[in-house]
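Re: weekly structure request thread

Next one in the queue (89 aa):
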Amino acid sequence: MLAAGLLPSAAGHSADRQASPNFVFFMAEDLTSQSFAMFNGGNGALTPNLERMAEHGVTFVNAYSNAPVSSAARSILITGMYAPSWGLS
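Done, posted below.
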């Protein structure tokens, strides 16, 4: 009975989820914006699919890292915790 009572609310919840925006986050090792033609005046790798996604979404062009090395920076993004709390620097 409990499951039957939850079905109507689950159906309504899925409709809300379809209305929410999609979020795609790309994380790559040792890659800068200068590597892509779309950020470097046409010089760099041609990435038509990424360019198409960027045209219809939001791109961040100014950012900084909370850690001086890649492994610690990735740990921050994955866990949401600063590197020193994990013993990384």
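The chain has a mean pLDDT of 77. The helical segments are 2-19, 48-55, 70-79.
Next request, please.
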